[in-house]
């Protein structure tokens, strides 16, 4: 099941994963990100410990190749798994076991990795990659979703649609954006809608939350409200 894209936005200092499938609640099991370290997507006959242990190994300084090798070495079900890993430096490693369900595969480009299984065909990954590469002017979240929509238009999961998710981390350990569509007739369409809703207030509000550098964040609600309104006004002006 599933195809996903892992990417890094060097300008924004963010790592992101977008994923879609004909399966329930894909966002709960596939994407894992360690802020400022790397990202992992575990799929096919999913093994959650690939994400849990893989993130730990990345934090310990292991390369993506070393991470994948370590995960596979401890798993007798490795031929039923698919996993891809990207670290903050853009290094990529991937594994697609021989017992994954066709069509399955992995491709990589400048700053992104895309893998999938149970797909309509290789065009799903090819179109996702082509669209991601061609839309570098889009905001990161929208660029990731647009790439997934292109893969869906090329056939997507050959069984159909059910869930999708988008996870983005910046410098902090908490996510910059964590959107999940667990059960929907048009999950990527709904993910696109939720991303638009996030830009109404959330993306402006999150700048006031606590950070490691400023553990209290901003607690003056007057400052928060004024900052949000100013950001919204600027956003509207730029769109005019």
Write a structural description.
With 240 residues, this protein is α+β, with helices and mostly antiparallel strands. The protein has two domains: 3-186, 4-Layer Sandwich (Glutamine Phosphoribosylpyrophosphate, subunit 1, domain 1); 204-239. The chain has helices at 48-59, 64-73, 123-134, 140-153, 187-198, 202-205, 221-239, and strands at residues 3-9, 14-21, 31-34, 38-44, 81-87, 92-96, 105-109, 112-116, 163-169, 177-181. The radius of gyration is 18 Å and the shape is globular. The chain starts with a strand and ends with a helix.
Strand content: 25-35%
Taking the sheet with the most strands, its summary is: 6 strands, antiparallel
Please give the number of β-strands: 10
Q: Which series of helices and strands comes N to C? A: EEEEHHEEEEHHEEHHH
CATH architecture of the largest domain: 4-Layer Sandwich
- What is the CA-CA span between the terminal residues? 42 Å
Name of the CATH class of the largest domain: Alpha Beta
Roughly how much helix do the residues carry, as a percent range?
Answer: 25-40%
Q: Order of strands across the widest beta sheet?
A: 7-8-1-2-9-10
Number of helices: 7
Which secondary-structure class do the elements indicate?
alpha+beta
**Cα-atom radius of gyration:** 18 Å
| Mean pLDDT level | 96
CA-based shape: globular
The number of distinct structural domains comes to: 2
Contiguous uncertain segments of 5+ residues? none
CATH homology group of the largest domain: Aminohydrolase, N-terminal nucleophile (Ntn) domain
**And the CATH topology of the largest domain?**
Glutamine Phosphoribosylpyrophosphate, subunit 1, domain 1
């Amino acid at each position: 099941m599933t195809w996903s894209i892992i990417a890094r936005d060097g300008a924004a200092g963010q790592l992101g994963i977008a994923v879609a499938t004909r399966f329930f609640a894909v966002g709960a099991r596939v994407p894992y990100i360690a802020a400022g370290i790397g990202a992992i997507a575990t799929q096919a006959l999913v093994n959650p410990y690939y994400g849990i242990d893989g993130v730990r190994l990345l934090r310990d300084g292991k390369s993506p190749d070393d991470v994948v090798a370590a995960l596979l070495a401890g798993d007798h079900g490795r031929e039923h798994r698919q996993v891809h890993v990207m670290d903050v430096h853009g290094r990529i490693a991937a594994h697609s076991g021989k017992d994954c369900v066709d069509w399955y595969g992995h491709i990589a480009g400048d700053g992104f990795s895309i893998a999938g299984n149970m797909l309509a065909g290789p065009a799903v990954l090819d179109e996702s990659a082509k669209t991601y590469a061609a839309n570098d002017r889009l905001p990161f979240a929208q660029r990731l979703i647009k790439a997934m929509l292109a893969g869906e238009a090329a056939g997507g999961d050959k069984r159909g649609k059910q869930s999708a998710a988008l996870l983005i981390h910046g410098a902090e350990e908490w996510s910059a954006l964590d959107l999940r569509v667990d059960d929907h007739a048009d999950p990527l369409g709904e993910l696109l809608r939720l991303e638009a809703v996030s830009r109404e207030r959330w993306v402006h509000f999150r700048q006031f939350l606590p950070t490691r550098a400023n553990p209290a964040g901003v607690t003056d609600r007057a400052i928060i409200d004024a900052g949000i309104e100013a950001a919204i006004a600027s956003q509207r002006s730029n769109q005019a």
